[in-house]
């Protein structure tokens, strides 16, 4: 009987106060899988070694191409546009709304129009007419997943950093499971949208193009299910945790080669999400299996599992958040 992988394609599953595994971080693999399949976790989305797997998700667009390239759409190279342009938030609007604290918009840094400052930026400031309606509507599943991911990461970090919580233990455990390929695609959407909206730059000057290689069509990777080249995509590198960084602010740093964007880092408290449009340095962990947040001297699990189509991915840990 095949594993019911598609249940995870466009969904995020979360649990707290779960029965822990006695052998590894996360829920007991003998319990029912969070995806709702009613099968044991180790027979569904987890391997016996505790890694998480999912089938390659279907393309965001799988019907016939329209043959039209809208001149204002950043997906125009695929000749698959509709005739109406729409406003697209290069940082998804639902992420921005969910990160509001007491009605105040989150802080943003890194865009050239901020001139090196970190400022509270409203949702409307992140929208530009850079996508046709067809391409924009197809991105909705990615925006939904990213919104739930960032909200959970914020809650995890705030909980661990709290100095007023009387107790941090099993009752405060938090486990999140989502599709790694979908999160990876959302980062690609952010890079392409950031360049198209002139929100990526160097020395205060917007950058106008994304670096790639012959035969690599980024629009087909994003919308049509083409695969990233080997070792491209989401990766993690060793970095110092910024003590001033909080999960109430988003920093975006673009990587460049010859004035072209070749990747980006999204900083969110202790977490760095890196997307590389090329092979990263050898020390990088490509397509990490999980992100784990720890606070010394506490008995608590804050754990995000990324499921990938193959086994063998390595975990990432962040500590000293207290």
Can you describe this structure?
This protein is an alpha+beta fold and 322 residues long. It has one domain (12-319). It has helices spanning 93-98, 133-138, 140-161, 180-196, 218-223, and strands at residues 13-16, 85-89, 107-109, 119-120, 127-132, 174-179, 201-202, 205-206, 233-236, 249-257, 260-268, 271-276, 285-286, 290-293, 302-307, 315-318. The strands form four sheets. A seven-stranded mixed sheet has the order 4-3-10-11-12-9-13. A five-stranded mixed sheet has the order 1-6-15-14-16. The chain is globular and about 55 Å long. It starts with 12 loop residues before the first strand and ends with a strand. The mean pLDDT is 87. Keywords: Plasmid.
Sum up the structure in keywords.
23% strand; plasmid; 16 strands; 7-stranded mixed β-sheet; 322 residues; alpha+beta; 5-stranded mixed β-sheet
Poorly predicted runs = none
Indicate how many domains the architecture comprises. Answer: 1
What is the count of β-strands? 16
Number of helical stretches of at least 4 residues: 5
Structure class: alpha+beta
On the 0-100 scale, what is the average pLDDT? 87
Q: What Rg do the Cα atoms give? A: 20 Å
Q: Note the main sheet.
A: 7 strands, mixed
How helical, in percent, are the residues?
Answer: 10-25%
SSE diagram, text form:
Elements: E1 13-16, E2 85-89, H1 93-98, E3 107-109, E4 119-120, E5 127-132, H2 133-138, H3 140-161, E6 174-179, H4 180-196, E7 201-202, E8 205-206, H5 218-223, E9 233-236, E10 249-257, E11 260-268, E12 271-276, E13 285-286, E14 290-293, E15 302-307, E16 315-318
Parallel strand pairs: 3-10, 6-15, 14-16
Antiparallel strand pairs: 1-6, 2-5, 3-4, 7-8, 9-12, 9-13, 10-11, 11-12, 14-15
Helix pairs in contact: 3-4
Keywords: Plasmid
